[in-house]
Model the fold of this input.
Amino acid sequence: MMNRQQDQISLETTNTQALHLHTYGKLDYKHAWDMQKDIVKQIDKGLAKDTLFLLEHPPTYTIGSQRNPEHLLLSAEQLEKQGISVYEIDRGGDITYHGPGQLVGYPMLLLEGPSLDLHGYLRNLEEMMIQYLASYGIVGDRKPDFTGVWVGNEKIAAIGVKFNKCRSRRGFVTSHGFAFNIKQGIQHTGFTGIVPCGIQQFGVTSLEDVTGLTFTVEQVGQELLPHFMNVFGYPEIIHHSIS
Amino acid sequence: MSDNGLTKEITMPQLAESLVSATLNKWLKQPGEAFEAYEPICEVFTEKVVAEIPATESGVMGMHLVHEGDVVEVGKVICTYLTGAKVDASSEAAGAGEKVVNGTGAVRVGAGQHHAASISSSTEITADKLRSVAEQVGMLYNNENAPMRARLSPAVQRLASEYDVDLKNVQGSGLGGRITRKDVLQFIELRGNVTHEALKQGADVINGGLSAVVPVEMKNSQLQYQQNEEQLAGLDQSLAADASSVSLPVRSSGLHLSESPRVPHIDVERPQTVGDGEHFINVTPIRNTIATRMRQSVSEIPHAWTMIEVDVTNLVELRNKWKDEFRRKEGVNLTYLAFVLKAVVNAIKDYPIMNSVWAVDKIIVKRDVNISLSVGTEDSVMVPVIKKADQKNIAGLAREIDDLARRTREGKLTLEDMQGGTFTFNNTGSFGSIQSYPIINYPQAAIITFESIVKRPVVINDMIGVRSMANMCLSLDHRILDGVICGRFLQRVKENLESYNSDTKLY
Done:
């Protein structure tokens, strides 16, 4: 009500179907990736509907399509010693970190029709988290050249997406998604081993750092959903809890 | 101090990054007193916040090496303590460790008893004897490093002059026999008792209440007492006069002592004697810090001052539109302050030089905009800090303001709440002011005030309308800032405030 932009965006993208939500708690990166690929195929074939995964990963580095090995600052031995897995994957973006204390969301949505706007999808992911931050009194920003959500000069949420071109119809199905830093201290664990997203000059922060409050990753997942539905225009959510 | 390896030292901890020194406010553990690990041993005072220093392990307090009211550098030893498996052993060791303190205490009590005895039981106690007691005490000091006796803190000197105490007669319990404030207070208390006794008995004598039952020695003892007192350099002569002429007011300066209170205190609300033209208020550590900071700011920073007036009619409407719903939803008052602060913070983002510090050979511009918010309490002003105010929206600022103001009133601010401010905002309008000349919160570059909102006739397009107007006043460090930049900055604040309308988002 207080937020006009919110209303405008929900008018732009309106879905008549429900969003299927899968929450996993902690899930291995490879496992989650395989399941994503499977659901993307099913959506392509019309066997599944728009789906959102919410989960946490064990410590993992993923390297996107802009492969810059120099942005990984740790050697193979150091990585093994710290129990961190590394995956080279098929999303956009550079290297990032996933780990405990971070909410990871993988929306697999069918984007089609005349108003198909791939960059608009990225902006909507940002908008959802910006609105969520605003509800806690925090101003989340975009940086023109860097996808993601920023608070001041620090990144609070990373976004990396793959648009999978449909085989059985026109349009795209999205995979990968966003990683939202929740717990304080996450910047000191995983992000010190890399240059996040290849951006040298800016640091990383977390929801707990910027608000001074305490959160659980599950709680943020729950609180984020209304904003996700609002921005992407889903009338309802069908929750499949799998953890 | 004992060298059996059980004696350890406690140093002034680095309570915060920028801390270089702190004032020891109060000892919570006295020499010889046992404490558990994590139990607070003393209170220190810094940046207008009182913090307790906990013990790192259990032990027994040894010597206090600094006095209440002293400013202590970080890392300096503040006290010794004894640690050991057995309490008995450690308390014994404590006795050895602070021989001076305990020894002095015993002698002092002894001396007090002698005083009392000389009055009540006509024991022949001459000034010589009293002197010899004093000498014994003196010897104790002489055995240790007596030179410390001569080092008197300002608090001690002030107290001594207020109560006309000759410090030569006060036994010091501090390091090396140094005289502490407490020693002086104890001395005064002791003297007060004696005086009281003397007064009472003197009155009996004069009123003729003395019957034959009262032995004549009593009178003699009075005289003896007076003589002793006269001979004793320490107690002022008025005491002797007291004993003989009871009805006369006693004091000539400072606190009125006609009642000989056991614990000296100053009643601020009601002057103790009708006709007194003045009374005294103790300068609290907070008051002292404010005074120091203000003087430092005014003497170091060349202040300049400027003011703008802002049309806040739309802001008044906007706030009225949301205040009830906000109160219901957030449980927090949506004050004008949040809107004004947002306008100021956004202007600082456009003119970052406002957010800086003069460092002689350079100007340090701070990246984060941390707003020090002046919050008045009954007897002081606190400036808790809204950290990273540039990252908060209006709702977020409203919550922070509410939280800080509430905790200030409840006295629950932490050291961290007070630190890191880069620019100060003072809502002087809340006391009805329409114009003020604030002093910069040292070492910041500027301070801004928001004055009362008043309805005034204003000329708009050559017509007169009634608008809600408010002044904003800015004091600036003229070493860093000039009229041009501050004029632009204030103009931006004005634009930001006047561009609020009913569509402005709170979130």
